What we know:
The N and C termini lie far apart (62 Å). The chain is built from eight helices and five strands. The chain is globular and about 70 Å long. The protein has two domains: 8-87, no CATH class; 96-198, Rossmann fold, CATH 3.40.50.10350. By secondary structure, the chain is of the alpha/beta class. Helix 7 links the parallel strand 4 and strand 5. The mean pLDDT is 93. The strands form two sheets. The protein has a three-stranded parallel β-sheet. Strands 1-2 form a two-stranded parallel ribbon.
Amino acid sequence: xxxxxxxxxxxxxxxxxxxxxxxxxxxxxxxxxxxxxxxxxxxxxxxxxxxxxxxxxxxxxxxxxxxxxxxxxxxxxxxxxxxxxxxxxxxxxxxxxxxxxxxxxxxxxxxxxxxxxxxxxxxxxxxxxxxxxxxxxxxxxxxxxxxxxxxxxxxxxxxxxxxxxxxxxxxxxxxxxxxxxxxxxxxxxxxxxxxxxxx
Length: 199
């Protein structure tokens, strides 16, 4: 541990290091790991956790947020005594988001994410934004490159609705290339739809 130093790690996910919702099975495939690579990553992370517990005396495998950043947060937690905090909660508090929502008569929140999927519900920024607004009865619309989370999950996380900005079936390469243009187009459609209530 570092004497006289407090380390606070801001994590964008709640996932533990190990297990079905751990770093390897959840984030490995995102980074291109096939099932065999995911299996080997899990074995290696479990071995790492065993060494940490043996040598440092701290269990890291099941601790909330130790799966963030490929397990980097686990090492900082175990070796440097770091606090693992929800990144979105810290940012919301620092910028006074709750206060702004409550005091400025906000009628609607629009947020975005590259992909709204099951990981969104694990502590990602858009979920924190949606939950804070929905607690005050403010509807939340999300725009995303891809929406694969169920409508039920999205509503549980605080979203009123979610729209993909991609206008037609396409490759990831094309979506990344045209994302800015498609976002503007979808925002125009959304704005026109919202304007209907004022006509």
